[in-house]
Amino acid sequence: MPSAQPRYLNGVVVGETELSARELLDRLLAIEAAAGRTRPGPMAPRTLDLDLILFGDKKIEEPGLLVPHPRFRERLFVLEPLAELAPEWIDPVTGSRIKELLSALLREQAAERRPS
Questions:
Q1: Catalytic annotation, pick one of 22, 26, 27, 37
Q2: Average pLDDT over residues 87-115
Q3: Is 49 a catalytic residue?
């Protein structure tokens, strides 16, 4: 069972870079480390969590780097702010627009809450 999570803030940043996906991830991890992030275990509370969700239309599978992020389609806290900034972006794995992924997840979660 995951540890109780303290309140936290989620956000999305959209930008352009000359860095490779690996270089960008390394920079994100360095920022986390500089802010005192430790990794005691999966799902442990964290002071800062910077994830690389998408990298243009690239699909990347390397040790320690999967792009698109493998669970972003299941996370409202990623899809909601991303749909505000880039609703027409395409998930290179599914071919769906971000706004479509968000709508599908909202429908799925509403169906799960309905009484049987």
A1: 37
A2: 95
A3: yes
Q: Which fold has domain 21-113?
A: Alpha-Beta Plaits (3.30.70)
Annotated catalytic residue 57: no
Query: Which of 110, 42, 37, 41 lies closest to 71 in space, CA to CA?
Result: 42
> Is 91 an annotated catalytic residue?
no
Asked if 52 and 27 count as a contact pair (C-beta separation under 8 A), the reply is no
Alpha carbons 40 and 112: distance in angstroms, whole number: 32
Question: pLDDT tens digits for 17-53?
Answer: 999 999 999 999 999 889 888 777 777 777 788 999 9
pTM, 2 dp: 0.84
Check 22, 27, 46, 97 and give the catalytic one: 46
